[in-house]
Amino acid sequence: MSVRKMIGLHPKVAGHVNEPLALAAKHAMYCALFTTSCADACSAEGASAKGEAASGIAGDMSQCIRTCMDCSDVCTAAAKVATRMTGDDDAMVRATLTACIEACMICAAECDKHDHEHCRLCATMCRECADDCREALATLH
């Protein structure tokens, strides 16, 4: 399945898809999944490091968990707003993409503080998402 194809089927779009915006929406959804998974893995890392039950959340990972969860929510919102084609609201799309860039950069910086492979992958995905959102911003009026 293709996000680009789905957007292209919208009557207003008539096949003329803003490719950078479609890619930003797609990668924002990926980023939402990566950050959710990272938050979940961080909660398990903290628990196992302290010898607690898997449901425990270690204090040293709590900021990373919170940041990943917040980033996931912002990325999800950006993806949804970026795929809506009815009406013209470049100002809203611009604001949402800008928030996504900021959230991704904050999350990447937080994940960089931790020596876990899932944090490294999450930080990489966040930076890629931010780059895609920047490219999409450049295409808006």
Automatic annotation (TrEMBL):
Pfam families hit by this protein: Csp (PF03860)
InterPro entries from the UniProt entry: Csp_YhjQ, YHJQ-like
Name used for this protein in its record: Four-helix bundle copper-binding protein
